[in-house]
Amino acid sequence: MLQSEFLKSAESEAKVRGSLTGIPRTNDPYTTKQRYLRVTWKFPIPTYRQFYKCVAKGLNDQKQAVTISTTIKAEFMNENVCEWMDSIDSQVRKLSEDITESVEYFYGHILHFYSSTIRSFAARNGHFRRHMQDIESSFAIMMKTNSYFRWDAIDMSESRDGRVYIVSKRIKSFDLIKCNDACKDMGGYLVELNDNDEYRFVFDFIASLASGNIYFTGMMDSRTNRGFIFFNTLKKAPLDLVWRHGQPDNFGDVEHCVEIGVGGFGLNDIGCDRAGRFVCEVESPLSFE
Questions:
Q1: Which of 71, 93, 202, 266 is deepest in the core (most CB within 10 A)?
Q2: Gyration radius (Cα) of the chain, Å
C-alpha cells in the first residue's frame, strides 16, 4: 500500500493495461482521505495471477508532478457491484502479464472477488447472482481441467437446469473412453440428451460458436437391437429424439457414435474414429438458495 505519497489530483482518462476498462470518473477531487480506488474490469479473471503492478500519476499537495506505484493483490470493493457487472464479458482472459499503464488514483486495494461480502450480494440481486454463478462456475471448471482438455481449449454454455455444457475447441480423433474421462475430470460426462428441449439448447449453443461441424455426444448404438444407449451410464437413449432425414443409417456398418452437427438440424450417426470436437455435460458447481 502507498503510505507516504498521495495524489492531490489524478490524470484524466487513465486506464489499466490488459483488457481492463477505463477507470470511472467522478466530479469530486481525489483527496488524501480517500481509501480506495474503484476499478471496473471484465470477467472471468484467470486465477493464475493475483498480483499486479499499478501506477498512478498526478499532482501532490505541493502541486508537483509525481508518479507512484505499487504491487497489489486484486480484490473487489464491496460497493456499486451491479454497476460493475455491466462491463463483464470474457475479454479479461487476455490479461497481459503486466498491468503497467496509468490509473487515475490508487491508494488502497480491491477486495478479493471470492470474499463473503461479494457473495452476500448474490442473494439480494438477481442480475448480479446470475453473473456470479457463471463466473464461479467458470473458475470451478477451470480448476478441474486436465492437460487433455485445458481451459484455453473449451467453450462453456450458460447454466440450464443446474448443468452447463462444455465444448472442446480442438479437432481431434474421437475416443469415447478418453473423451468421457476428460469430462469426468471436470465432474461430468459426455453429454446425454434426455429430450429434444435439451438437444435444442445444446444445438443452439454449438451453432453460436460458429466453429467446425462435428460435435460428438455420449450416444452410441447398442450393436444388438439397433437402439442407442449413453456410453457413461448405459441408459437407453429416448426413441423420440430428432434425427436428420434418413438417419440413423449406420452407413457402411461403421457408424456407431452420434454427433450434433451444425450443418443441419437433427442428430446423425457417425464413425467413432472421425475427427471432431466433443460435448461434456457438467453439473453446475454453484447454486444459490
A1: 202
A2: 24
Average pLDDT over the chain reads 67
Query: What's the grid cell of residue 195?
Result: 429430450
pLDDT (tens digit, 9 = 90+) per residue, 150-162? 545 788 898 899 8
- Of all residues in the chain, what percent carry a pLDDT higher than 70? 45
The answer to the question of residue 37 being in a domain is yes
Instruction: Please check whether residue 218 is in contact with residue 190, taking contact to mean a CB–CB distance below 8 angstroms.
Output: yes
Whether the Cβ atoms of residue 169 and residue 277 lie closer than 8 Å to each other: yes
Give the global pTM.
Answer: 0.50
Please, what's the b/e burial string for 226-242 (b: 16 or more CB within 10 A of its CB; e: otherwise)?
eebbbbbeeeebeeebe
Which phi and psi angles does 183 have, rounded to 5°?
A: -65, -40
Q: Which domain holds residue 159?
A: 145-283
Q: Can you point out the beta strands (E) in 1-141?
A: 9-10, 51-59, 65-73, 102-103
Residues 164 and 255 in one domain: yes
The verdict on whether omega for the bond into residue 248 sits within 30 degrees of 0, i.e. cis, is: yes
Cα dihedral 149→152→157→159 (10° resolution): 80
Whether residues 181 and 212 fall in one domain: yes
Reported as a single tens digit per residue, the pLDDT across 16-73 is 333 333 333 333 334 333 334 444 444 444 433 455 555 566 666 677 777 766 555 5
Mark whether 276 and 177 lie in a shared domain. yes
Q: Is the pLDDT of residue 223 over 80?
A: no
In terms of domains, do 77 and 183 share one? no
